[in-house]
Amino acid sequence: MSDILNQQIGGDHYKTCKIQPIEFIEANKLQFLEGCVVKRVTRHDKPTGKGRQDIEKAIHELQLLLELRYKPQE
Q: Which comes out higher in pLDDT, residue 14 or 34?
């Protein structure tokens, strides 16, 4: 792992992952909202995560994806 991936500001919740979310996000060329969901779901249950708030934000971001990228189903 490179030196920059060993650095984290505000906790260590990503450094403990086998694959850091940013590596997954970049390797799969995910867009902004998808990347946010991956990060929030990865950290929600870690000591420096934000628990329920991370899950609620991930749900909101998924709702945004539905609204912005997909037509409502009738």
A: 34
pTM of the entire structure? 0.80
Sign (positive/negative) of CA torsion 53, 59, 65, 66? negative
Instruction: Express each pLDDT in 44-74 by its tens digit.
Output: 998 888 999 999 999 999 999 999 999 776 6
CA-CA distance, 74 to 67, in Å (whole number)? 14
CA dihedral 27, 51, 46, 63 (to 10 degrees): -10
Q: Which residues of 26-38 are buried (b: 16+ CB within 10 A; e: fewer)?
A: eeeeeeebebbbb
What are the start-end ranges of the H helices in 1-74? 21-27, 32-43, 52-69
Vertex 41 angle, CA 37 and 45, to 5°: 155
